[in-house]
Task: structure prediction
Amino acid sequence: MEKVYNSVPKVDYFFMGGSSTFSIRFPEDLAAPGVQVVERKLVFRTPYGESPIMKLFEVDGKLVLTTKMHGRRLGVSRADSSRQVFWVAREAGVKRILAEGGAGAINHLLELRDLILCHDYIDLSLRRDVELGGPHLLVMRDPVCPQLRELLYEVAAAQIRAKGDGRRLFRRGIYAVTDGRHWESRAEVQMLKQMGADVVGQSLCPEVYLAREIGACYGRIDMIVNYAEGIVEDWKHEDLKDIFYNEAHFIGQIMLEALRRVDLNRTCQCADLKKPTLLVDREYAEG
Result:
């Protein structure tokens, strides 16, 4: 049984593990130089329940907190999982969040194992009230940090060249967010396509909202793991399984190299896109 901690260590960086690295122990299985685990099985007490299990590790002297699969686990709602993770990140003082995931292709030009750095989203989930509280207005004009997106593009492009398998990398795209846990129907996918979505997934939101709320930059890369229903061809479980187990090291290497290179020198506006709300209690009281 894990010990539950009341205090959170101060850390500038957070790695949000998703489905693309779920099948490995990140970062241990990469056996990379300059990387060591400081502490495993960290659980923190939050106002929303106990946090998911986290790990503290070091990359070239840089401390990083991480959790697997966006903090999701059985018996805890996805909304509470997100609140727990981002409450911990806020208490830690996290400034930079790097995330990865798997997405379904809606744009028929996308192929399995392509990598995409989505720059915007369409939120069709029912989790829009997931917040940590506080009187503020979140400006979502650049939900994914342009600076971190460029960093991930440079790192991923270099890794693809080194691998030499011809896979493609896209530096922009629209991510449609749905609730799950089921996947979308053909009719739903056609609706998303008409709305302009390139890919579909279940985790970009509320993470971009919560990152903005705590003043952190959020950067993310997704691998195409299936064709959405009605796109190109029916997806195959064998393909999904192969990607799940055999691409994890590749994505892990991209994320670890990005963590090596990321710093706190911001050229973005992310920290300035949370504004005070004008909807204050006094106005309600006056009627």
